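Hi L.,

As promised, Phage shock protein A:
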Amino acid sequence: MGFFSRLLNFLRIRSNAALYKAEEPGEVMDYSYTKQREQVQQIRRAVADIATSEKQLELQQTELLNKVEKITGQARQALAAGREDLARMALQRKEALVTQLNASEQQIAQVRAQKERLIQMERDVAARVETFHTQKEIVKARYNASQAQVKLHETLSGLSGEMEEVNQAMQRAQEKILLTQARANALDNLLEQGVIGEQTYLGGDTLDRELQKIASQQNVELQLEAMKEQLQLGGPNTQPKQIEGPTSSIE
């Protein structure tokens, strides 16, 4: 097989696959059902046309019968009048009409037989079309149900993926919460044990803070004593003396 033959086969396979994917079973069956109904209508029109032809042949047969009866009566009249020659001529015409009448009878019989066959065909085809219609609706319902099931599975699959991402995010959040809570509990334990204090978070030195606290208390006491002396002596210019705290940390 040459290159171009393989290429044509490949393109044909791809084309068939694309058509298969694009094909909708419901639409195909509806189209087939429409065509079958059109066939039934064509058969019914053919039956109607044959029935019309049968009716025309019957009218022609009736007309021939009337002519035969009329010529038969004319032959009797001619014979009664002694005109045997006219009677013979009338009977000869009658024979020609009888021949036409027999041919008409055969045509009517053929048309009736054909009509009966078409009527039976129309019944059979109509029954098959009705059966196909029932099967078509069942297949369409099953196909629609399967399509809905596929879409549901696809939706659930997508939802499962999203839920997996949500669960992972929730797990990460819980881990962060547990880590933060553990750190908070550890800090609480250190505070209770006195390892760290409030000033630790501010970056101050423990010794400097204690010395500043002592100096502040002493200043308060000195100011208090100075106020007492001022109230007792009445000296308005007496100023309380303050103790300065440490200016640098002790190493």
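Residues 84-193 form the longest helix (110 residues).

Thanks again for sending the construct details.

K.
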